[in-house]
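for the record, two folds in this file. i put them one after another cuz i was lazy. first one right below, seq on top, structure tokens after. the second one comes after a little note so u can tell where it starts
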Amino acid sequence: MKLSIYNSYLPLDDASVLVFNAMEDSFLSVFGYCFDGNTPLDEIRKNVTEETWDNLVKGGVVVEKEKDEIEELRALIKKVDEDDSIFILHVNPTLDCNFKCWYCYETHKPGSRIDSATTASLLSLVESIIQEKPNLRAFDLSFFGGEPLLAFDEVLRIIRGVKELLAGKEIRLYISFTTNAYLLDEDKIEKLMPYRPGFQITLDGGPEHHDKTRFEKGGKPSFKRIFQNITRCVENDMAVTLRVNFTTKNIDSVSEIVERLKEISENKRTYLSVDFQRVWQDGGRIVDETYEKAKEYRSALRALGYHTPNNRIIHGVMNSCYGDKKNYLLVNYNGDVYCCTAREFSSANRMGRLTGADVEWEAEKRDAFLECKFSQPVCWNCRIAPLCGGGCRRQAMEHIPLGEDCMYNRSDSDIDELILERFEERYINNHN
């Protein structure tokens, strides 16, 4: 037997330790004896009870000597990312937008729309996917952009076409939108209701701060209308992930969002998830007073019955990004194909082209993309590698050639903090 390379040891006091194993995502508190990864296994065995030893084995802290944990993790990543039971298709029906937010990385293309020929090719591709994947049980169709609701008629054509292709098959269709929701009026909601889509909708702080970031030409404010449309969706039993973009400047105004969310019917709050995301130009994942305030808002909303995920809790392997999946692609309005939504939709970032019922891939570029995840040697022995997976494929590809440093620049103390926050989230926040 040996100690797992994916253990973390956090002393509670001189004679107690909290042990976390990232492969099993398990915590074990050991009282009366403190040890770490340098302690001989025989010594640990002698100083803990039989029950504690059994729990160390069950929790993956102690593993068989012959076990190749790195290869086991590679196999797990492959299994998750190559799941053939689901296909995820993102569509940019337009790269036009009715807003121009200062932090947006996209270059908007006024007047751009997916045309009938590209729509026909897209539906032919979906038909091929369905025929070629006998294990398919779920089809995830998501609209991105640009602002997809600017091309609403085209969106409805695609939805109806995919729905028809899936008719009579044991494949569940999931539909979702990433939208600013300004155009999500009663008429559109009524037309979408038969498909029960979900929405990701962003607010940039409370009304005053939001309206300085998101406004129509001429400076017309948008917060009130967007919030009304969010409420409309929730009251009609359609799921919404409300993404609250916060910064050091707007964090105090977020309290106004919390107050307004109190007005939503208690029996409808399960349809709304509130995701606090720090604008990356403002510090990303830095833990400071701003982050702590966001944490307080999350707690307040939880007390009101809302789901509020913690975006610092890492799930990069078991719940990897859709862009990491083998069965994922994004079709742009002009037929360009991409493997990620988090970069500009330029020819330099393109992975292929939609041609008829198939995709003509830029083979060398796509192969490099598919092979780059968990490729950095620095990641293989990292104690939280089974959670992180070395970052998503896009991040990993951007760090080629390989370096000797964590792409997130995480120190040991940063990792300890992430683990403690995971413990708090699991055993404290969920039991308040």
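(here's the note) second protein begins now
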Amino acid sequence: MKHYLTSRDHSNSHIVCDYPNICPICNNKISPINEFEKCNKDINLVSILFTCPACGKGFITHYEYDENKGVNRGTYSYKNLTLLQSFPVKPKETIFEECIRNLSPTFCNIYNQAVASETYGLDQLSGIGYRKSIEFLIKDFCIYKHPNDEEKIKSTLLGQVINTYIDETSKIRTLAKASVWLGNDETHYIKKFDDKDINDLKRFIRATVSYITYELVSDEAEELVNS
């Protein structure tokens, strides 16, 4: 939704912009309260201090404007602004099912650290974090299925662990391999899969988590029935 901001420098200038609709701190959908705006014409930047009605905290949003895009209407100058960023930013934590948290707490921790790095714009590091997270998830799952081979699983390369300890007909095996391949792409100088990116890697990891969750819940149900 477009909002019209009346300049406070008495220049009869109106600024047209989109307010952010998600608080960067609490991540709730909001209609923020405009507390103060400042235009820096030297760098074509408008800064607005907002208050979030959900968490009550303030944040600053930067907009870039171009006078050439404006349309003069009488005594008012309308400038179309492009939203750049809001800060401070608090990454939105991914809350995994309890069974996943119990199976591999390190996976959950690393995954959310990767999410945080992506939120902060550290795009060259986040993919490496996602790749590391899938290693802990898969190895912890294989240890759960084969507890007698725990030390061997820990010291074996992930690709070999997948081939040895996950059934070749399992969707988990397919998804794990795909996740590892795309994750490796994030760590290497030359990418093998140019048509895939970090969003595909995250999709594969989330799907892997879903299938592992299914396995864990099924085992729990089977234990209940057999008891």
